[in-house]
Write a structure and sequence with these properties.
The protein is mostly helical and 565 residues long. It is built from 21 helices and seven strands. The strands form three sheets. It has a three-stranded antiparallel sheet with strand order 5-6-7. A two-stranded antiparallel ribbon has the order 1-2. A hairpin with a 4-residue loop joins strand 5 and strand 6. It starts with 41 loop residues before the first helix and ends with a helix.
Amino acid sequence: MTSASTAQSPSADPPKMVEVTGEPSPDQEPTAPPTGDGGVPAQIRRRFATVDTQVDRFSWLATAVVVVIAAILRFVGLSSPKGKIFDETYYAKDGYGLISRGVEWNYKDNGPSYVVHPPLGKWLIGLGEWAFGYQDADSKVSVPGHLMTTAPEFGWRFSAAVIGTLSVLLLVRIGRRMFRSTVLGCAAGLLLALDGFHLVLSRAALLDIFLLFFVLAAFGALVLDRDARRRRWARALDDGLDPSRPGRAGRPPTGWRTWPWWRLAAGVLIGCACAVKWSALYFVPAFALLVLLWEVGVRRSAGVRRPWRDALLDELPWLVLAGVLMVGTYLATWSGWLITDDGYYRLASAYPSAPLSDRPVIGPLINLFEYHRAAYGFHAQLDDAHKYQSWPWQWLLLGRPVAFHWAGDGTSWASEILLLGTPLLWWSFLPALVALAWLGVARRDWRAGAILLTVAAGLLPWFWFALDGRTMFSFYAAPALPFLVLAVVYVLGVLIAPAGGEVGTVAPLVPGDPSYERRLVGSVAAGAYVLLVAICFAYFYPIFVGKSIPYSDWLSRMWLDGRWI
């Protein structure tokens, strides 16, 4: 693994505005600034470097190993325990209703279900039930799968396991691109794969693993957009662009090929996230701010005279279009409700006391708005006490995990599925965030800022809702989890980087190098940390998957003076 090399481009005259100055030594004649290929000064070119300037033949092989580990952990024994656990009792039924009738349906009472979360996550759960079968003893529904018939639990948990595995794949590739390091990217994916919190959500028919996936995918698309835009500017500078010229003459050429396709894809993906849970909306302003900061940064690197003004003028229309795609994607996930007459609040004639309308075209939209308003009212007034509720300041400390399943006789054996993060990993998050904040300021590193901003979007809004005493659970932190892992990996990258090198820079450990001892210690510490996380995960694995173990063994895993019971 090597640091990013200089991109190769056809030579061109250097841009007029780019100037790199330095004081020559007393015995040396002043020389022209060093330039990279294409006439662009090397210092400027380094600012445009992206991960695809380096070739790592084994990166996908290493990625595959991590993803296979994640898949084995998530699929083996997926149909155990039997029956619906925790909120599967809602979402498994809703998923089957969507794939069979187009809306969430209560088969026991033969009427539409009133639900307070958008449908996309339940559509995905329903796809697994369509493929592998569904069974519900309460409503006496039992249907075979269209692909093959398995235990019904496998059907409603299948999509969560797939998405959980794919989220590990995403984090490996996003980490590799951000840190320009296959080792650090794989470390991020492996830590996520070995996290109990992520594992439990990947083996249950709940919505939060889908929310995590789409938020992470949207962030990944924005990272790809950042790289694509920087390559665009680098090519334009190679071709002789003078960014100091006013108007379009000082900007890279336009055309449909240069559109920010990845940014538009991010709009679709964040729309999908909102269509799983509305809490994805907290990431929208954070992602928009990231885009603007990155666009300002690339213009500053290129030498644009008014980077803020030009970035706002050039990029705001694209951000608005991405927002339109987000809204359109969200509405598309409600298509089953819109094109049928069966959904809750769908027809005014079925709910005479509600302010609904049956007018063509506009009526369904009015009714959908009223449905959303009713659902928001439910969330805003959700303050009923719950045994497993917790506050945001407890989440990273694992102060109150959620029990998804319990069985046992209380004396000789026990079986539990506990939504608990791998303790060593989760108790690393707060120190890593503090270190990340310090390093980000000291190094002015865009990656540190991006990670901190996304973690803030995933966690800080819940502190506000806590002021009103709203009932909350630790799984609300799910979409912030990949970014918390990236924070830890960033710190590990600092430990193994050469002195003065950026995170992801790897050079041979050569005795006599000034940073040899520090890097040797750092590499051993980083490797030992990942190994200890794996050991910690293995110790708690039985209570992540509901294995039957001796009661004394179960009790020994209930740390923090029994707060995990």
